[in-house]
Write a structure and sequence with these properties.
The protein has 347 residues and is of the alpha/beta class. The chain folds into three domains: 196 residues, Alpha-Beta Barrel (TIM Barrel), CATH 3.20.20; 76 residues, no CATH class; 33 residues, no CATH class. It is built from 16 helices and eleven strands. Strand 8, helix 8 and strand 9 form a beta-alpha-beta unit. Helix 8 crosses helix 14 and helix 15 crosses helix 16. It binds flavin mononucleotide. Flavin mononucleotide (FMN) binds next to strand 3, strand 4, strand 9 and helix 9.
């Protein structure tokens, strides 16, 4: 598939594996890049030595384009920004702030720059500053979140800028990918979907929690402190919500938040922040990164060949004959020519 995003990034599929702090390391990023998407090493909160090691390690696993992510609220962001110019990195994505002061330096180092934004105003500003593309991330997503939902944000951002837009937040399969393209995007970024792939090194208990989650099992902590984060409901989230609006409990809150993602990543899925998006509700199987990318692309491509009427037929089949549809999607035959059995139920 060729879009402005695949051309810009030099990849085969317009699918970016979203950075996941303490989780998306060399192994996951290299597997995604090797499979034709863009793998992104998360640098947020990581020592600079670790970043250099991970980039070098990923390079032993793939020679395809590779990304790194800078969390701009990270105190070492300026040093990290410089380091990335010296490392073998093709793309930088940024989160939690404005990368204004670094964009010129990265572009001089021939690095593509894709800031994550949560509003059309931010997107316009990033375009003016020279960003190569925009990642518009809706509040459904896991990790740090804004206010607008993907469904409203993506078309608003697409109306606001001329550079390509990548949709993030709530995309986990071909249906989501096609929907993102219908809203105006030219690529997608997925985080939660990649949490459960074989190459993801997060603790097994974390994967199980995501696989077992329902659509309503996420919650946002930290709104009152100005750092809203979407995670799965657990003891940590309940305690956080209880104390976060009480000024008298600031020290207690600080203690609870400190190292909360690290605790979850190493397997404490009750005491830590199990960051994941609402789409965890439809992530119910383990796959390899390559299967995720191939399956998502094939399903989106196939559904895109249908008229709305035929799409409705496919949607009815999805409920009545899910296995049949999946087989046909994998085999690449046209589900649009398949008829819904008369009297079929949606159950
Ligand atoms: C566990 C976790 C950690 C994340 N950490 C980061 C991060 O360090 N930097 C960043 O820019 N985005 C981060 N994100 C957001 C993802 O890169 C991605 O945009 C988001 O997960 C997309 O939404 P989805 O979860 O619905 O797929 C994180 C998301 C998750 C689930």
């Amino acid at each position: 598939m060729r879009t402005r995003v695949t051309e810009l990034l030099g990849v085969e599929a317009p699918i970016i594996q979203g950075a996941m702090a303490r989780i998306s390391d060399a192994r996951l990023a290299a597997a995604v890049s090797e499979a034709g998407g863009l793998g992104v090493i998360a640098c947020g909160g990581a020592p600079l030595d670790w970043v250099s090691e991970q980039v070098a390690e990923a390079r032993t696993m793939t020679d395809k384009p590779l990304g790194a992510n800078v969390m701009l609220m990270d105190p070492q962001a300026p040093e990290l920004a410089k380091l990335l110019c010296e490392l073998d990195i093709d793309v930088v994505t940024t989160g939690a702030g404005s990368p204004a002061e670094f964009i010129a330096m990265w572009k001089k180092a021939d690095i593509r720059v894709l800031p994550v934004v949560a509003s059309a105003t931010q997107a316009r500003r990033m375009e003016r500053l020279g960003a190569d593309a925009i990642i518009a991330e809706g509040t459904e997503s896991g990790g740090h979140v804004g206010e607008l939902a993907t469904m409203a944000l993506v078309p608003a951002v697409c109306n606001a800028v001329r550079i390509p837009v990548v949709a993030a937040g709530g995309v986990a399969d071909g249906r989501g990918m096609l929907a993102a393209f219908a809203l105006g995007a030219e690529g997608v970024q997925c985080g939660t979907r990649f949490l459960t792939v074989e190459e993801c090194t997060v603790a097994e208990a974390y994967k199980q929690k995501v696989l077992g989650a329902r659509d309503s099992d996420t919650i946002v902590t930290g709104r009152d402190s100005g750092h809203p984060v979407r995670c799965l409901k657990n003891r940590f989230a309940r305690e956080a919500r209880k104390i976060e609006s009480d000024p008298a409990r600031a020290a207690e809150r600080e203690h609870l938040y400190s190292g909360s993602l690290a605790r979850a990543v190493s397997g404490d899925v009750e005491g830590g922040s199990v960051m994941a998006g609402q789409v965890a509700g439809i992530v119910s199987e383990r796959k390899t990164a390559a299967d995720v990318i191939a399956g998502m692309t094939a399903e989106a491509e196939l559904l895109a060949t249908c008229s709305l009427e035929k799409l409705a037929t496919v949607n009815a089949l999805r409920n009545t004959q899910r296995d049949l549809l999946n087989t046909e999607v994998v085999q690449g035959s046209d589900p649009c020519t398949t008829h819904v059995p008369t009297g079929g139920s949606n159950g």
